[in-house]
Amino acid sequence: MKAAKTIYLLVTLLVGFGLSTASSGQDGVPDITGYWMWLPHEEFRMRLWGPEPGEIGGLPLNEKAINAAMAFDPNDYYKPENQCRNHGAAYVMRAPFARQFLYEDTDILLIRIELEAQERKIYLDGRLPSSEEHTGLGHSVGSWESEILTVTTTHMTPYYHRRNGVPYSENAVMTEHFLLHDSNYLTIITKVDDPEYLSEPLVRSISFKKLPDSYADQFNFEYDCEIIEWEGGAPGRGLQ
Amino acid sequence: MKICLARTVLLFLIPLSLGYSHHSFPGIYDVDQQWLLKGVVNEFIFRNPHTFVVLEITSDGDTTEQWYIEMAPMQVLMGRGMDKNTIGPGDDLIITCNPARDGGKSCGLGQKGGLYRPDDQLLYGMDPRQLHDLLNLPK
Fold it and tell me: Over the stretch A85-119, which tens digit does the pLDDT of each residue have?
């Protein structure tokens, strides 16, 4: 087990080094590669512990979204089909833990999200999606404009802006602007357009702090999820 | 110096991540109530998206109930040095947690939650001395 972990770390380091080397080909743009730890400066309680049921203030929701959020049953998360459902693209960047940014090649920027070991691919060549299929992370295309990376994500499956059932639809379009502050801090300003649920675009920001490369030893990019059929629909509900 | 600063931030931020749950914690559990449960472990379910301790609680002399204690994802517990063998069937545990809102027999390890051996050894969560003070419990 220890040997396996050592090999995993070695491979991670080697692969990471190789991919990071590819970033040297990104001339004229800020170096966004490396490990970044979430900063809980905004919406700490909601991002870590989660919102209270019905806590929907501050979001530009239309009536349909409000009704959906107020009808949301928190125990839905215990349904077999939802237990291992990963957070969607328009939410997952707000979650805790670290991120790793690295280039797969000159056309693809990877964002590895420690939580749930999700990997976003940002296509820098503007390519169209290979199919009309929608996925949790959707299809993301990005380009550097001056010192800002702008990413547009479409083809997402419906998910939540908050973990109390505030929804976004499959037609939502997310625009993210990634900007660095003196290379140690990263802020992502996010705008979500979704007329099905929003009365106007939802604009928020999140920030990260750069970690040393040695964080590779701690970066946990393994995630297995096991579904349990809970008697009564949730843990402890079917007991006498 | 940069590395020292980064480590400081890391040490600060990782504990903040300890309570993270896949679902909204206050959505499932009543964070205004803090319970103290004592029992014997039936099973330690070490899996994602959440880990559970299945606890056999004896009350009123001979009545036993099975409770599910929900905790953070595996990787969070592993970050605190726990693994699937840290807790096993037959272990006596003392647990402070928030009860389920809907009256189900589950309790979540929240912001002030903790998992302790009877000798006050903290396995996970909040320092028991802080908690005893908080709840005004006998030490």
Answer: 999 999 999 998 899 999 999 999 999 998 899 99
Residues in A closer than 8 angstroms to B104, CB to CB, are 232, 234-237
The shortest CB-CB distance from B47 to any of A114, A163, A226 is to A226
The total number of structural domains that make up chain A? 1
Rounded to whole angstroms, how far apart are CA atoms A99 and B97?
30
Structural domain harbouring B27: 2-135
Q: Supply the CATH number for residue B83's domain.
A: 2.40.50.140
Domain membership of residue A16 (yes or no) is yes
* Average pLDDT value for residue range B18-45: 89
Report yes or no on A145 lying in a domain: yes
Nearest in space to B13 (alpha carbons), one of A221, A92, A114, A205: A114
Is A233 among the domain residues? no
Q: What angle do CA A149, A196, A132 make, to 5 degrees?
A: 60
Within a domain: A240? no
Looking at the structure of chain B, the number of domains it has is 1
Residue A144 has pLDDT above 60, yes or no: yes
Position A4 scores a pLDDT of: 45
Closest residue, chain A, to B3 (C-alpha)? A212
Among candidates B3, B47, B78 on the partner chain, residue whose Cβ is nearest the Cβ of A212 = B3
- CA distances for A229 relative to A26, A72, A76, A83, angstroms: 48, 20, 13, 10
Residue A140 lies in domain: 2-221
Is A225 in Cβ contact with B21 (below 8 Å)? no
ipTM comes to 0.81
Q: Which residue of A44, A84, A162 is in closest CB contact with B49?
A: A84
How far is Cα A2 from Cα A50, in angstroms, rounded to an integer? Answer: 35
